UniProtKB/TrEMBL annotation:
Keyword Cell membrane among record annotations: yes
Membrane-spanning intervals of the chain: 22-45, 51-71, 92-112, 132-154, 159-177, 197-216, 237-257, 289-313, 334-354, 360-379, 391-409, 415-433
Cell compartment(s), UniProt: Cell membrane
Species annotation: Glaciimonas soli
Protein name: Amino acid permease
Length: 462
């Protein structure tokens, strides 16, 4: 182990990502197969109106994606929302925003581990779900150890193959519709049916759909790894990700929604496997399960591990969390301590919730939605009173975005709200305890937050 100066290669993240890498990374994070794996959850909670849920979610998150694009251009950093809030509203706001988004970043990989385990359980039921979770975690951590360029390559290949899988499954579902299954045609029933529509149910389903759109948030964490420091690429990739995912999700859910009408659902997590078995038999389901594991289950977790590690890295670099999290692997240029720590936490959550996947799906959104509010507030704080501000991007869009997020949060389940509030309280206690023991001094907004180009304290590298 050696002590490296901030200017040495091993102390900073490597800048080697292109616009294409960013777009595919975001798509890999959300996963094109998401409307297949999430179909049961969204269908049940929305009361049979999954298309409306995804459309409403996309509309609400457009304003958030716009604010992300604005802030990543102004303040590019691996810390994303943590960095934005720190620089515009001070260290406490920065810490709380980073703390809350971490809840999402730790739960999403755990949820994906368990979904991958469900697929493997379809193939080899003699092996318990918890064992499969451990295996998936081990494989993904090994791949991510070799740096973000390897992750980007694997993610790009995975996205292409996932799109092919989605096309095949949609083809099978259309064949089933033609044969009289479900609504026996592509109707508008999954979009709107007055007899099924309830505001509270729709907003609750929208909150679950948020998990499928988090790719743009993950892209923002890679701001320090873009080639030639061209931060405009981050904003373009964020908006591209939202446009592509929303179009894909609505189209696929429209088809699935028409097939699911009248279909018995015993477990929301296995709906897509139950559908393919009913349409093509166990052989088709087995083939899809293998594909889901090899091309989706493992690659989909890769960008999730990358995202949470970058936020922990930024918070460790600023010492709002233990500075050991800012250690960077000299050879591969990744924050390896942050990655190991976050993976261990997500693994523990996955093992604890392995038989309660529906509850885990509901819990995910609180952290992300809380972080989104801080992104909007950062835009207002940074640009609100500046000459030449844009009335739309710097004022109207973030205000509408805050309203949309509050509306969704207000309809989360009591369990999700309780967990989210407890997590927030724990963060506040940690912050106060740290200030008490360290005698911390307030830092003005202009001096706080991650700054990848500013002078940094020496960091220990591997």
């Amino acid at each position: 182990m050696t002590t490296a100066s901030p200017n040495e290669q091993g102390s900073k993240l490597k800048r080697e990502l292109s616009y294409r890498d960013l777009v595919f990374y975001g798509l890999a994070y959300t996963a094109p197969v998401t409307p297949l794996t999430m179909a049961g959850f969204v269908w049940v909670v929305s009361g049979g109106l999954p298309v409306m849920a995804y459309l409403l979610c996309a509309l609400c998150l457009y304003f958030t994606a716009n604010s992300y694009a604005v802030m990543t251009s102004a303040m590019p950093s691996a810390g994303s929302v943590y960095n934005f809030a720190s620089k515009t509203m001070g260290p406490f706001a920065g810490f709380i925003s980073g703390w809350m988004i971490l809840l999402d970043y730790l739960l999403v990989p755990a949820f994906t581990y368990t979904l991958a385990a469900v697929g493997l359980e379809q193939l080899m039921p003699q092996v318990d779900r918890e064992t499969w979770v451990v295996i998936v975690v081990a494989v993904t951590t090994l791949v991510n150890w070799f740096g973000v360029s390897v992750t980007a390559l694997v993610s790009s290949i995975s996205v292409i193959l996932q799109l092919l899988l989605v096309a095949v499954i949609v083809g099978l579902l259309l064949f089933a519709l033609h044969g009289g299954m479900g609504n026996a045609a592509l109707t508008m029933a999954p979009l709107f049916d007055a007899s099924k529509f309830h505001v509270s149910s729709m907003l609750a389903a929208t909150a679950i759909c948020v998990t499928g759109y988090l790719g743009f948030d993950a892209v923002s964490t890679l701001a320090e790894e873009v080639k030639d420091r061209d931060t405009s690429l981050i904003g373009k990739a964020i908006l591209t990700n939202l446009a592509v995912t929303s179009s894909l999700f609505v189209l696929v859910t429209w088809v699935i929604g028409n097939v699911l009408t009248g279909f018995p659902i015993s477990d929301p997590a296995t709906v897509i496997y139950d559908l393919t078995t009913a349409i093509g038999g166990k052989g088709v389901t087995a083939a899809m399960a293998w594909f889901m594991i090899l091309v989706v289950g493992v690659p989909n977790v890769l960008p999730m591990q990358v995202g949470v590690a970058r936020v922990l890295y930024a918070m460790g670099r600023d010492k709002t969390l233990p500075s050991v999290l800012a250690k960077v692997n000299r050879r591969h240029g990744n924050p390896y301590v942050a990655m190991i720590f976050s993976t261990a936490v997500s693994l523990a959550i996955a093992l604890f919730m392995s038989e309660r996947i529906s509850d885990l799906a509901i819990l995910i959104s609180f952290g992300a939605l809380s972080g989104f509010v801080f992104v909007h507030l950062s835009v207002l704080a940074h640009f609100g009173r500046r000459p030449g501000r844009s009335w739309w991007s710097h004022l109207a869009a973030p205000l509408i975005g805050i309203g949309a997020v509050v509306m969704i949060v207000s309809n989360l389940s009591s369990m999700a709200l309780t967990v989210g509030i407890c997590w927030c309280a724990a963060g506040i206690v940690y912050w106060l305890a740290k200030r008490y023991w360290n005698g911390a001094v307030d830092i003005s907004p202009s001096e706080s937050g991650s700054n990848p180009d500013a002078s940094e304290p020496p960091q220990t590298t591997l």
